[in-house]
Specification:
This is Cytochrome bc1 complex cytochrome b subunit. It is an enzyme of class 7 (translocase). Residues 462-482 are annotated as: Disordered. Residues 6-232 form the Cytochrome b/b6 N-terminal region profile domain. It is a single chain. By secondary structure, this protein is mostly helical. Helices cover 64% and strands 7% of the residues. The protein has 18 helices and ten strands.
């Protein structure tokens, strides 16, 4: 069978040519904010490539060995196989330290890209119908990547990551009724156990990456290609139209360059900026905790929640329930992820809006939603700051007690203040837009009249500027619109 006949036969059975033709002509908006999600996507590519390299050399075992490698200060020290192999990757495998740091930096960028992409989608309302499922997948991806980052961060079994495992063990034990059984199963006995590193390794390189490899294409490709691309309002663009460049050749050239740019930035950061120098921490010893221990940024809010929570506990039926661990370790992330997952449906219920939305909102046009978003950012930011309350107190020579109480008050009042301030700013910006539409745009040119008075020259708004300012057509209740 000739090549052309084979292609036609495959097309008759699978319809690939028709799909490919539509895909090549699909329009993508040129606004820069639509590339934020691609930062996460391409960082994930770097994570996968560097992670495969590291699996060739990392030994996920907790059997104790005496180190006799290239790093002289730790020679003769007893440590786990996991930590010894991490040192070997860093100092003896050619390019190992560069790849390990690229893996770490790309993970941090991956999570940062997810957060920025999620915020852009939230503030512009791109989670609305018909994209609720894509939003839920994005929230699930955020949780999975955060969890996998924690597992990978714990694998070297150094003193810093061991402190994180100690917290994980404490949280697991604090679960009422089943906590001790869960901890024994997870760690393989009393802390630190003998099985935790191999089990985290299996989750880190097999289970969670497998889920990501299914969900990321579904989120970024399949559902996106099946739906009309979102875009911001502009003159002459309707709800079911997209103004932009086709996928081929314009967008594919742009996105390929973006992939190379992200990979290059990660490689540059791994070359210039040291991250997670495990050889300085030493192997994990349960009786030792290094001063100023801080987790990676994405876990900082959980650390802060644990530090801000008062020492509350009670005894029921002979069992002590430690609320000082359960509330921050379970309630704080549950509030974050449950709130994100439920919000599209809550807004639809509040507004009664079941229309299809392909045109995005400007944040100022939806003050209630924008205020809630800023309240969430402040909530997360205060917890993240509290994760370093000891460092703040030491650096600025203030009382740790005063720092903790200040952050506790900020956690309660900060989101409320942020919501109201943001809402009022959005209303003020709306008022300015209405004023410009009615009286013209300020030009900055000041003229003096015959009577001596000074006035500013204005110009009428262009049709393009008016198209951007057109408010949403659908009615909204006060909570969302005002």
């Amino acid at each position: 069978m000739k090549g052309g006949s084979l292609v036609r036969a495959l097309d008759d059975r699978f319809g690939g040519a028709r799909f490919l033709d539509r895909a090549m002509r699909k329009a993508f908006n040129n606004h820069w904010s639509f590339l934020l999600g691609e930062i996460a996507l391409y960082a994930f590519v770097v994570v996968l490539v560097t992670g495969v390299f590291l699996t060739f050399f990392f030994k996920p075992g907790m059997r104790e060995v005496v180190y006799d490698g290239a790093y002289v200060p730790l020679r003769g020290v007893t440590m786990s196989e996991a930590y010894a192999s991490s040192l070997e990757i860093s100092f003896e495998v050619r390019g190992g330290l560069l790849i390990r740091q690229m893996h770490h930096w790309s993970t941090l960028i991956f999570l940062g890209g997810i957060v920025v992409h999620l915020l852009r989608n939230f503030f512009t309302g791109s989670f609305r119908r018909p994209r609720e499922l894509n939003w839920l997948i994005g929230v699930a991806l955020f949780g999975l990547v955060m969890l996998n980052g924690l597992f990978g961060y714990s694998l070297p079994d150094d003193l810093l990551s061991g402190a994180g495992l100690r917290i994980l063990h404490g949280v697991t034990v604090s679960v009422p009724l089943v906590g001790t059984y869960l901890a024994t199963f997870l760690f393989g006995g009393e802390f630190p156990g003998a099985d935790i590193i191999p089990r985290l390794y299996s989750l880190h390189v097999l289970l969670i990456p497998g889920l990501l490899l299914v969900l990321i294409p579904l989120h970024a490709v399949v559902l996106t290609w099946r739906q009309t691309h979102t875009q911001f309002r502009e003159k002459g663009v309707a709800n079911h139209q997209v103004s932009g460049a086709p996928f081929f050749p314009a967008f594919i050239a742009k996105t390929t360059a973006y992939l190379l740019l992200v990979a290059g930035v990660v490689a540059l950061m791994a070359t210039v900026f040291q991250v997670n120098p495990i050889w300085l921490y030493g192997p994990y010893v349960p009786s030792t905790v290094s001063a100023g221990s801080q987790p990676d940024w994405y876990m900082g809010f959980l650390e802060g929640a644990l530090r801000l929570m008062p020492p509350w506990e009670f005894t029921a039926f002979g069992h002590t329930v430690s609320m000082s661990v359960l509330i921050p370790a379970l309630a704080a992330p549950a509030l974050l992820f449950a709130g994100l997952a439920a919000y599209p449906f809550a807004e639809r219920w509040l507004t009664g809006d079941r229309a299809v939305h392909n045109l995005l909102d400007r944040p100022r046009d939806v003050p209630g939603r924008t205020g809630l978003g800023m309240a969430g950012i402040v909530y997360y930011g205060v917890l993240w700051t509290a994760g370093g309350n000891d460092v703040i107190a030491h650096t600025f020579h203030v009382s740790l007690y005063a720092t903790t109480w200040t952050l506790r008050i900020a956690l309660l009042l900060g989101p409320v203040v942020a919501f109201e301030v943001t809402r009022r700013l959005c209303l003020a910006l709306q008022a300015r837009d209405r004023h410009q539409a009615a009286y013209g745009v300020e030009t900055g040119v000041i003229v003096r009249g015959p009577e001596g008075a000074y006035t500013e020259v204005t110009r009428p708004m262009t049709e393009e500027e008016k198209g951007v300012l057109t408010p949403p057509a659908e009615p909204r209740p006060k909570f969302i619109a005002r």
